[in-house]
Amino acid sequence: MKRISLTQYLVEEQRMNNSIPAELRLLIEVVARACKTISHAVSKGALGEVLGSAGSENVQGEVQKKLDVLSNEMLLEANEWGGHLAAMASEEMETIHPIPHRYPKGEYLLLFDPLDGSSNIDVNVSIGTIFSVLKAPEGMSTPSEQDFLQCGTKQVAAGYAVYGPQTVLVLTTGNGVNCFTLDREMGSWVLTQRDMKIPAETKEYAINASNARHWYPPVKRYVDELLAGKTGPRGKDFNTRWIASMVADVHRILNRGGIFMYPADAREPDKPGKLRLMYEANPMAFIVEQAGGAATNGKQRILDIQPQKLHERVAVFLGSRSEVERVTSYHNA
Ligand code: AHM
Ligand code: MG
């Protein structure tokens, strides 16, 4: 089998479709390199003394794990000096991180969730990194949070890495979705799945059912119909799958179909869900749409939402198109 590296893929994509300028290619390669470093730290586990709490909280009031902090630092360090970025933003940092003055600045903005699925770190279950790339607004001099507040449709690239039995990197630059597997011995990313498409037919759904008593009626109706199985309105049995790492749940759905849901619920009526719009929902929605699926907040397309703040939360329904359309229609009924 001829092996195609991430670099070769990016260069060829640029030649054929003119969709990956040199600066964006550098950006993607640098993020991929940081993911390699994170993957290495994750795989060391207790031996690398990377497990457990960091003894701090992030801006969302969540306890930070050592790996949350480490991964954040790795992504910042890797991306600071290349000249491809104007600023970065992260789940783990309250405010944006402009590129320090000692380095040249580029035209891109990078957002990330450095370590998604933090509750799974210490129990050796798949976790990952999610990232989203935007262009800085024309004429921007000093980057501000406002410059990041662009709709998901403005993303020029998005991706995620899963640190699981294999380490994979799934990437879109708006021309389909491709998956690369980390060859640890060679230290390189190898193209292993081209043009991924989410299967339309599915019998799997992902939701944290321990919140069922708080769900609003549209979500309850949709899940009740799935649970009714063969003799219910759907006429077939469904399986629940919930890893509690969005990256791993989305990766399964990209490969096998299904729907992932993290709805808003009645526990905290003012909170529009748990997941964050700009560095979790938007990049995943971009990838899922590029793979033929759909992503909404129950009412509208996630990519069309105008963000109001950096750490904004959003309800998420994404995956196989017909399932997402069905649960969305229940919200809009
Ligand atoms: P994190 O970014 O702090 O890890 O939180 C996001 C994660 C998602 O990966 C996952 O889908 C969800 O939180 C799990 O939530 P729950 O603990 O309710 O199962
Ligand atoms: Mg996360």
Main sheet: strands, sense, barrel: 8 strands, mixed
CATH class annotation of the largest domain: Alpha Beta
CATH superfamily of the largest domain: Fructose-1,6-Bisphosphatase, subunit A, domain 1
In sequence order, what are the helices and strands, one letter per element? Answer: HHEEHEEEEHEEEEEHEHEHEEH
Radius of gyration: 19 Å
Kindly report the average pLDDT value.
95
Q: Could you tell me the strand content as a percent range? A: 15-25%
Count of folded domains: 2
Q: What structural category arises from helix and sheet content?
A: alpha+beta
Q: Write the CATH fold name of the largest domain.
A: Fructose-1,6-Bisphosphatase, Chain A, domain 1
Number of helices: 8
Folded structure, characterized:
The protein is α+β, with helices and mostly antiparallel strands and about 325 residues long. The chain has two domains: about 5-195, Fructose-1,6-Bisphosphatase, subunit A, domain 1 (Fructose-1,6-Bisphosphatase, Chain A, domain 1), CATH 3.30.540; about 205-330, D-Maltodextrin-Binding Protein, domain 2 (3-Layer(aba) Sandwich). Helices cover about 30% and strands about 25% of the residues. The protein is built from eight helices and 15 strands. Strands 4-3-5-6-7-8-9-10 form an eight-stranded mixed β-sheet, sandwiched between helices. It has a five-stranded mixed β-sheet with strand order 12-11-13-15-14, sandwiched between helices. Strand 9 (about 175-185) and strand 10 (about 190-195) form a beta hairpin. Helix 2 runs antiparallel to helix 3 (about 65-80) and helix 5 (about 215-225) crosses helix 8 (about 320-330). The chain starts with 5 loop residues before the first helix and ends with a helix. Magnesium ion binds near residues 113, 116, 246 and 280.
